[in-house]
Amino acid sequence: MPVSRFAILFVLLCLALHSLSGWAQTAPSAAHPEKIIIDTDIGDDIDDAFALALALRSPELEILGVTTGFGDTETRAKLADRFLGEAGRQDIPVAAGVPTQTKNPLNQRRYAEGGHFAKPSHPAAVDFLLEQIRHYPGQITLIAIGPLMNIGSAIDKDATTFRKLKRVVIMGGCIKRGYGDLGYTPARGPQPEWNILNDIPSAQKLFGSGVPVAVMPLDSTQLKLDEVKRAFLFSQGTPITDALTLLYHQWGQETPTLFDPMTIAYVVNPKLCPVQAMRIRVDEKGNTIPEAGPPNAEVCLDSSPDEFFRFYLPRVVAK
Q1: Per-residue confidence (pLDDT) for residue 188, from 0 to 100
Q2: Alpha-carbon span 147 to 129, nearest angstrom
Q3: Is pTM, for the whole model, over 0.85?
Q4: With 70 as the cut, is the pLDDT of residue 20 above it?
Q5: 284 vs 79: CA distance, rounded Å
Q6: Pairing of strands 34-40, 61-68
Q7: What is the pLDDT of residues 97-118, one digit of tens each?
Q8: pLDDT in tens, 271-286
Q9: Distance CA 300, CA 151 (A)
Q10: CB 3.0-4.6 Å disulfide test: which of 54, 191, 216, 260 passes with 145?
Q11: Residue 138 region, left (φ>0) first, then alpha (ψ -120 to 50), else beta?
């Protein structure tokens, strides 16, 4: 029996609507911004600040708060206070995680202790996170760009509430390409990545939590901010670019690798880091190992640095 023209048109319309619906779920807009919380170890490496800058310049995102973890969490919170204040966003709350012992130098401490915009105290990060999830069940994307202490503690405290997150997007892990493997040098193979390695139990809890997890690993996040790009960015004279310039010089090294901003870029524009479903196991040494079984994560194994920076730089420097 021949298929009618009406039936064909109906099927095509349904497919189109389904496609649009899927796009809307993965690509937020300024009219319908994605609710996010950023969990960060800002103050050590410089890429956390560059990630926060991108989030602040993305109208597709509604930043419900920033939580700090790892080491001197209160100083990190003061750093976030100042950065947000310089950007005119003192309305965004900052919560501090439980401090931990670390020998990692907080090289941007002078910026944090400069006395600008810092609040005298900060709420507990885990309590803040769980309260926000209860207030917006199924709506929040948690973007984790540091060791996962706050995530592990939140799961321990109230796993049922934690599972009401919409998803977690992390910069973490390594599947095939380790540090320094940029795709054009001899392959070094996978290795433990910093954020996973510094709290292996919390990483294991996250991948076993049942919450959708999107992973931006070393394979796709070794994005070098070279001298030409730095000169362009630091010469713009906006409050955000001036803050990044100060933090860059306090960081004290030469060429930043913008690992963390890819998490923000992925949430705003998923095409910048296409993902594939995988099952990830975190072993006792901090390796993130693909294995057979039902997927528990979506992982981006490759990205285009050129496309990333064409997206990143115009946004961050816009006046």
Answers
A1: 84
A2: 16
A3: yes
A4: no
A5: 33
A6: parallel
A7: 999 999 888 999 999 999 789 9
A8: 999 999 999 999 999 9
A9: 21
A10: 260
A11: left
pLDDT digits (tens, 9 = 90+) for 226-248: 999 999 999 999 999 999 999 99
CATH superfamily, domain at 31-317: Ribonucleoside hydrolase-like (3.90.245.10)
> Which amino acid type is present at position 134?
R
Q: Which two tokens stand for residue 5?
A: 């023209």
Q: For residue 166, which of 33, 8, 10, 319 has the smallest C-alpha distance?
A: 33
**Residue the block writes with tokens 């809307």:** 24
Domain spans in the chain, listed from the N-terminal domain onward:
31-317
Amino acid identity for residue 52 in this structure: L
Burial class of residue 127 in the structure, from the number of CB atoms within 10 Å of its CB (0-12 exposed, 13-18 middle, 19+ buried): middle
Please, are residues 46 and 84 in contact by the beta-carbon 8 Å criterion?
no
Q: Long-range contacts for 76-79 (Cβ within 8 Å, ≥24 apart)? A: 76/40, 76/41, 76/42, 76/43, 76/106, 76/112, 77/119, 77/122, 78/112, 78/113, 78/118, 78/119, 79/42, 79/43, 79/108, 79/109, 79/111, 79/112
Q: Reply yes or no on whether the pLDDT at 14 is more than 70.
A: no
